[in-house]
Amino acid sequence: SLTAALAEKVQQMQAGPSRPDQGQGIPFTPVIQEDSGGEKYVLPDSYPQEIPGEVSGLTGYQKVTAENEQIGQEEADNLGSILASGETGEGLNFPAEYYPYYAILDNTLKTLYRQVYANALVLNTSFAHKVAVTTAQAASVVEAVYNDHPELFWMDAEFACKYLRTGICVEITLQYNETADDLASAKQDFDACTAEILAGAVNLGSDYEKEQYIHDVLIQIVEYKTSVPIDQSAYSAIVLGQSVCAGYSKAYQYLLQQLGIPCYYCTGYAGEDHAWNIVKTGSLYRNVDVTWDDTEPS
């Protein structure tokens, strides 16, 4: 009976509150902040069921998913003898104002976050992580890195995890998209296109003007199109000029980060799985949906 009670408690902790887009990702724990009027944000009792016709279908983000495989202790021991930790990420710092998914993790998961980020940065695939985590915690960390860092445009939304019967993950394997085949060339193209866009924004007066400029440029240069290669990345929008909501949102996030403007990648449910952004200008945080703004007229 004790085992059953503990199992039920763990499942509840991993699942988090029920909501339309509930998955294996980071538990839904909104930060409640008072605005200038002293009011607090209150979660809605329900979600809209109808989507405006002109933006219906303009969705298409892919959830971060894990291919989990249970292994025995002997195989795990063998992995321990051959797997290196790769990059540890020690000394890295991710300020909360720019990296909110990192900020909501506890210190143990932040350690793994830094390691995942550092290994993804140099295209390492499988590595032994420094801290003991469950498969659900590993998924939360990989999702946090994926959501916080649009510059890792080669990082795929899928990864693999080998785990023991206890639920503890013993190996994480990251996956990369086709840009990783010639990453130096892909980075060169990405940086060149990014610099061209940013050149028109850097000398504008306010963050709001810069944010609006980037918003309008993306609407001009990106075409909403499904089944585009690597359409979950900033690269698809900035370099290829074709993407879905994930690419629009990651491109917008990356460009504003380069201008020193906090911009967050958000995912949820809008008739279908959808991605958009939250942007901070001055003391205000605003929702911005570049994908749904890319209509005729915009």
Task: Describe the structure concisely.
Helix content is 38%, strand content 18%.
Walkthrough of the structure:
It contains 10 helices and 10 strands. It has helices spanning 2-15, 73-82, 100-103, 107-121, 135-148, 183-199, 207-221, 234-240, 245-258, 290-293; strands at residues 65-70, 126-127, 133-134, 155-163, 168-176, 223-224, 242-243, 263-270, 272-281, 284-288. The strands form 3 sheets. Strands 1, 2, 3, 4 and 5 form a 5-stranded mixed β-sheet that branches. Strand 9 and strand 10 form a beta hairpin. The radius of gyration is 20 Å and the shape is globular.
Descriptive terms for the model:
five-stranded mixed β-sheet, 298 residues, globular, alpha+beta, three-stranded antiparallel β-sheet
Number of discrete helical segments: 10
What can be said about the biggest beta sheet? 5 strands, mixed
Radius of gyration: 20 Å
Q: What structural category characterises the helix and strand content? A: alpha+beta
Q: How many DSSP E strands? A: 10
What global shape is seen? globular
- Helical content (DSSP H or I, runs of 4+): 25-40%
- Which parts are unreliable, with pLDDT below 50 for 5 consecutive residues or more? 15-36
Mean pLDDT: 86
Strand content: 15-25%
Head-to-tail CA distance between termini: 59 Å
Order of helices and strands: HEHHHEEHEEHHEHEHEEEH
